[in-house]
Structure formats: C-alpha cells, structure tokens
Amino acid sequence: MIKTLKPFLFSKFLYGLVRVMSLSSERALISYLNIAEKATTREHYKRAIRSIREMWRNGHPSLKVAMKVLKNTSPGHKKQIIRCFIINQLLVGSTKRKAFSESAGGFYPPGLLVISPSMKCNLNCFGCYAGMYKKDEDLPYEVLDRVLNEAKEMGVHFVVVSGGEPFFRKDLLTLFEKHSDMAFHVFTHGGLLDEKLVARLADLGNILPAISVEGFREETDRRRGEGHYERVVRAMKLLKEAGILFGYSATMTKQNAGIMVSDEFVDHWMEKGCTVGWYFLYTPVGREPNWDLVPTPAQRDLLRSRVAHFRTTKEMLFGDFWNDGPVVGGCIAGGRKYFHINSKGDVEPCVFCHFALHNIKNVSLREAVTSPLFKKIQDYQKANDNLLRPCMIIDQPHVYRDVCKMPGVYFTHQGAGNIVDQFSAEIDEYAVAYGELAEKAWDELSAKKE
Q1: Which DSSP state fits 156?
Q2: Using CA atoms in the order 157, 179, 83, 236, what is the torsion angle rounded to 10 degrees?
Q3: What's the rounded Cα separation, in Å, for the pair 349 and 380?
C-alpha cells in the first residue's frame, strides 16, 4: 500500500508544483530545482539536477525551453508527461529496471524500445530506410498489447513508434489509451494530422509527435511529394494551438547537408512550434539504397559541431542519433539502451540494422532483449574507446559483419544484406575517413574534461 501511495502522492505534489511553476519567473524555476534535488534519493538524479541548475544559472537556452513548455503546453498534456515520463519512466521505472537486472544476471534493460506497428504509408520517399519491408504485415493488436505490458514489467514506460506511417493504424490510439501510463514518441510524416486526430491526441495527452522534414518547402516536397510541406506546416499549427509538444525529424543527405546545419533551418521550424529537433544520417538500407546520398565524413563532422552550437544558442532540445555517443555512452543499439521491433515482429538491434535472431510473436520480451545476439553486440560496444565512432554499420563495420553471421541470425527483408555485400568497400573507406576526424574531435573533447 505504501509503495503504491508514494508515487501517487509524489505525482500529486508535482502536478501542483508544475501549476505554480507555469506562472513563475526563470529565477523561480531555478530555485525549484532545489526541491527536485531533495525529492529524489537517487544520486545520479541528484547529479543531473545539479548539472541542469548550473547550466540554467549560466544562461543556457534550455531554461527558456522549460519556460515555454510550462507556459504553452496544455494542462492535460503536462499532467500526462509528469505521470508517464517523470514518475513512471524515470522514478518508478528505474527501480523496476534495477530489479530486472538483478533477476536477469546483471542485464540492465533498455530505457526505451522502438516499435513499428505497420509499414503502410501513402508516400513513396526515395531512400526510405523502411521502404523494403512488406506493407501487408501489421503486428496484431494483441501482440502490441502484450509487448507493452511486458515492457512495463521491465520498467520501460517510454516507447518510440515508427513505421511506415504509424497513424494509418486505426487501432493505435486505442492502444495509447489503454496504456495511458506510458509515453509515446511517434515519428510521423504529419500528413494525417488533421483537426480530428490532433483533438484526440490532445485528449489522450501521452503522445509527442516528431514530424519528418527534409529542409524547407522545396526539399520536403522533392522527397515527400508536391504539397507535403504545406501539410506539415498545417499539422504543426494544429499541434501548437492544441498545446501538444512536438518536434521535427530531419534526415541529412549529401544534398541537403548545408541546409540541415543552418541557423535558418532550425529557426524556421522553431517558429512553427517545434520543441525538439532530431537529426539522422541517411543510411543505404531500405528502398533503392544509394551511396551517393550518404553524407560525407566532413558533413557528418559538421553536423556534430553545429548541433553542439545549436544546444547553446537555440531555445530547443536536440538529438543527434549518430554523433551523440559521448552523451549516451556510445552505441545505444542491441538492447543497451534501445532496440526495434518491426511490423513482422522481428526484434532488430536498431531501426537501421535489418537483421534479427528472434521474432516477438514467438518469444517473450525478456528473452528477446537478453538474446545472444544482443549480448554479443554489447560486448563489442564495451570495447569501443571512441564514443564518436559508435555505429556498427558505418563506424565499426567489422562488428556488423560478424554478428550477422551468428547462428540463427537472419535478414528481415529482401535486399537487407546489401549493406554488407554491395557497399562494403564504400563503408570501409568511409569508416577510415571519418575515423580520422572523429579521433581528432575525441582528443579535443577529452582535453576539455581534463
């Protein structure tokens, strides 16, 4: 009874505190971190809170992000964020994850999972990483429901939803409603976000959309079809008016690299209401893989430095999937911090690694995340001493090729093996060239810490 009451009472306290904070000044918001530090008993959370407080005192723009979230987000949405992410994922979930690790021989479960309920999509974007999965195989609702229940038992209350276009699944919102104690970060092309759907998202409160963009109007329409830019802008307007947190998801290619790292690009989407900006590199997997679209090592290194610049100058939060190794301790794939379940149920190490050892229809989530495949990947991750070179596809290709040969491992769609067979020479050359840049950057980062 006491264990049940403690999160409930703490959540009630947080709801009240957030209401007060919404009316507060930046100075008062900094002072509230003192309460937060005293409210948690976990030392790593205390260190994180102290670090944030120091950043805010020094004028870091994330303070203004926090103020915008508090003032512009709807009350119901804020309440669900507190319940699902702060209480369930960070506090209750971390206790569950620790208990799981003790019962699983020291294997600490990932903090999140990515799941693609369907690969159906009304667009035909060139270079789509998911473009070669079959479109007529959706994960049954019963399997999705079971996976989410098992995830919560492990302490995972944060799920990223991808595809395909997730909102083509008419029963997806029913799933989100049933699992109202979880937070869902949905990556969508945005074209289906009309008034009715946005109103439903606002009512549920536990969904944060990330909308794909390729640049401005010209670049977005070139890849996603004529008129799609306007649909994205309209969707963002509806989300902003409804008080729903949302962000953009940007894939850097060799062609749009200059736009992606520009202040104008970030300012444009920030003006539309984005709170988060996600950056990914085009990877030659999926539909018609094309090495000529892969950003050069110099472009990737420029993205790394520019995202670091954005974090200190823009009133947004940023995630750089390939370059944030120093932030998250290296590669997060293979169940170390995340993994992917595709629409057929194949349990893949990463959304860009299209191979698997297990299908979730035949095994429990526990068996899937503690698989020999994931354990071998994590062993390799521990041996990497430069966290700016984390990826087993393009930074450590020997790892990718080795784990693909493990007994029982299979590619999850036709053509998925091309990244090993067709592009091995280009990847090896890329790994060496980027490695030189990454070693120099890593030495500079290490020197700053000393």
Answers
A1: -
A2: 90
A3: 13
Instruction: Kindly calculate the radius of gyration of the chain based on its CA atoms and give it in whole angstroms.
Output: 21
Report cis status (omega within 30 of 0) of the bond before 164.
Answer: yes
Q: Where are the alpha helices (DSSP H) in 261-336?
A: 263-271, 297-313, 325-328
Instruction: Assign 3-class secondary structure to the chain.
Output: CHHHHHHHHHHHHHHHHHHHHCCCCHHHHHHHHHHHHHHCCCHHHHHHHHHHHHHHHCCCCHHHHHHHHHHHCCHHHHHHHHHHHHHHHHHHHHHHHHHHHHHCCCCCCCCCEEECCCCCCCCCCCCCCCCCCCCCCCCCHHHHHHHHHHHHHHCCCEEEECCCCHHHCCCHHHHHHHCCCCEEEEEECCCCCCHHHHHHHHHHCCEEEEEEECCCHHHHHHHHCCCHHHHHHHHHHHHHHHCCCCEEEEEECCCCHHHHCCHHHHHHHHHCCCCEEEEEECCCCCCCCCHHHCCCHHHHHHHHHHHHHHHHHCCCEEEECCCCHHHHCCCCCCCCCCCEECCCCEEECECCECEECCECCCCCHHHHHCCHHHHHHHHHHHHCCCCCCCCCCCCCHHHHHHHHCCCCCEECCCCCCHHHHCCHHHHHHHHHHHHHHHHHHHHHHHHHHC
Structure confidence at residue 446 (pLDDT): 86
Distance CA 71, CA 299 (A): 37
The β-bridge relationship of strands 276-281 and 158-161 is unpaired
Q: What is the mean pLDDT of each run of 10 residues along the chain (450 residues)?
A: 50 63 76 78 81 90 90 92 89 88 87 95 83 83 98 96 93 97 97 97 97 95 94 98 98 96 98 98 89 96 98 96 96 97 97 97 96 97 95 97 96 90 95 97 85
Indicate the Cα dihedral angle 39, 45, 50, 52, nearest 10°.
Answer: -110
Q: Residue 2's pLDDT is what?
A: 38
Q: Quick one: pLDDT at residue 4?
A: 47
Q: What is the C-alpha separation between 2 and 291, in angstroms, rounded?
A: 57
Q: Which helix (H) or strand (E) holds 320?
A: strand 317-320
Provide CB contacts within 8 A for 409, sequence distance 6+: 355, 356, 357, 373, 403
Report the pLDDT value the prediction gives residue 10, as an integer from 0 to 100. Answer: 59
| C-alpha to C-alpha distances, 203 to 176, 207, 238, 242, 270, nearest whole angstrom | 11, 10, 14, 10, 24
Residue with tokens 């299979």: 410
CA distance 69 to 134: 39
